[in-house]
TrEMBL record:
Source domain of life: Bacteria
Name the record gives this protein: Peptidase C26
GO CC terms: cytosol
CDD domains listed in its UniProt record: GATase1_2 (cd01745)
PROSITE patterns registered for this protein in UniProt: GATASE_TYPE_1
């Protein structure tokens, strides 16, 4: 059996020193390490302005990992930007929207993390809270969804997991604790996606796809960082390599 290849989406940012080029395209090494701990081979997919290249990239991989990063521009879900909107990249948004369309057409499995989780929801027709200060959490105590960066490898808040679900099958439990580093969240879940995990204040923390799509698992937290502490979240990466 040949080694599976996992395509990993990249981030982009200006070079603060402008030593060689204005823009850097990169991926944090923790995503690569997550794939390395399976038997699959990580393959970086750079951001491209030529959207026609998406089909060729997706054809070369067996599955895709949509990574974290900037906010998704709210124009992709029909809203104007609010003051709390943080950094964004419309070039990345358009590229990943196209990658998703091609991946669905080619029936390629997807694991989506943080921004990737939010982006897939948007690109399939859902919406976001541009900032969690707008999140209506009823009478439940509000959870702190942004923990200190130096603590990011450790679990931070509790999680309730739907049984049955892909996530329950992977973790084997109906509750867990996860790290948290996001100021936005899912407001309206896209058609064809099913919520399968929630924080204690009711925010959607994970979804899986319905049968109309290839296997898609999305999580709001950062399992690639948590596996630097222990291997509890490693099954998510193994799922992507095996599915």
């Amino acid at each position: 059996m040949s080694q599976k290849i996992i395509g990993i989406t990249c981030s982009n940012s200006p070079d603060p020193h402008e030593t060689w080029d204005f823009c850097k395209i990169y991926v944090p090494s923790s995503y690569i390490e997550g794939i390395n701990q399976t038997e699959a081979l990580p393959f970086l997919i750079p951001i491209q302005e030529d959207l026609t290249l998406a089909e060729s990239y997706v054809q070369k991989v067996d599955a895709l990992l949509f990574t974290g990063g900037q906010d998704v521009h709210p124009m992709f879900y029909g809203q104007d930007p609010l003051p709390e909107l943080q950094g964004f990249s419309q070039i990345r948004d358009r590229w990943e929207q196209t990658l998703l369309q091609v991946a669905i057409a080619q029936h390629k499995p997807i694991l989506a993390i943080c921004r990737g989780f939010q982006a897939i929801n948007v690109f399939l027709g859902g919406t976001l809270y541009q900032d969690l200060s707008y999140f209506e959490h009823s009478n439940r105590p509000k959870v702190q969804h942004v923990q200190d960066n130096y603590q990011i490898i450790y679990p931070h808040h509790s999680l309730t997991i739907q049984k049955p679900s892909v996530l329950y099958d992977l973790l084997g439990q109906e509750t867990s604790r996860v790290n948290s580093c996001h100021h936005q969240g899912i407001k309206d879940l896209a058609p064809g996606l099913k919520a399968i995990a929630w924080s204690s204040d009711g925010l959607i923390e994970a979804f899986q796809s319905s049968k109309e799509y290839p296997p898609i698992l999305g999580v709001q937290w950062h399992p690639e960082m948590m596996i630097q502490h222990n291997d509890e979240m490693l099954p998510l990466f193994q799922w992507l390599a095996d599915v």
